[in-house]
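Bench log, entry 3. Co-assembly request; chain sequences pasted below exactly as received.
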Amino acid sequence: MIKYVVAVLLVGSIAGYLNNNWARVIENTWISDYAFNGALMLLLFVMGVSFSMDREAIAEMRRIGLRILVVPLAIGLGSVLGGLVGGLILGINAVGTMAVSAGFGWYTLAGPLVGQLLGAEWGALGFVVNFLRELLTIMTVSITFKAGKYVPVAFGGATTMDTTLPVIVRYSGTEALITAFSSGFALSIMAPFAIMALASLG
Amino acid sequence: MLNLVVALIAGIVLGYVLRKKKRVNLTRATFGIILLLIFSLGFSLGSNNELLDSLPKVGLNATVILLFAVGFSVLFVKAAGKMVKLD
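Structure output for the full assembly:
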């Protein structure tokens, strides 16, 4: 399946590029807003149906309960610490790199917000780091899910409530739905606060 | 973000109502929609000139930061999962 995903991602990128820079066939928002959100809502609905028809998945969720919250917390802390270590190794301002990695993969937030707080160069970095996180999660899910069902969720960060969720569930199974969605949801809420708090250190 | 939560909960409720019915493999049927989602994701990346411009400039630094961020996320989630016995 992953080769179809990669191929379609590539075709989509080329189509988006041509439509934007060469011949405007349709408005960008028709695809990147309406088609995107429509597909996503439909997928979440369908995944919700198959989840609650799946006894094992429900039993698994009951067993884990509120301990599920440690997943996004660990991912959040790990991301920020990774930003710190990366910044120290690269020899650039570690406050900036921590703020950048506190986007947790949500690049449409991290790019503009970091840019506003720390300047355009950091904004560009925030954009790219988080976009690559989303891309990496999709590209590697066929391998990472073998290392445990929380591994692709850790890769995905905040994106596991939307873009990367269908792909993760496809590999890890329906029982990963609630873990992935709730982790992505919690990290999406944490991201703007974490970015602002970390940026204020610098 | 709220619309996604609503869609998910609506699906869960419908699935609960239908839980006694014969199970259909819905994940198979959704492959086409996943591809539509991935296509529109690619489309919004390709049409984002700001992102395309900054990719070559900051790509290397971004990759280093990303690998550490993802690596520590995996380590932390594994460690925390052991502590609270998630598996």
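Residues 1-47 of chain B form one domain. Chain B touches chain A through 76 residues (CB under 8 Å).
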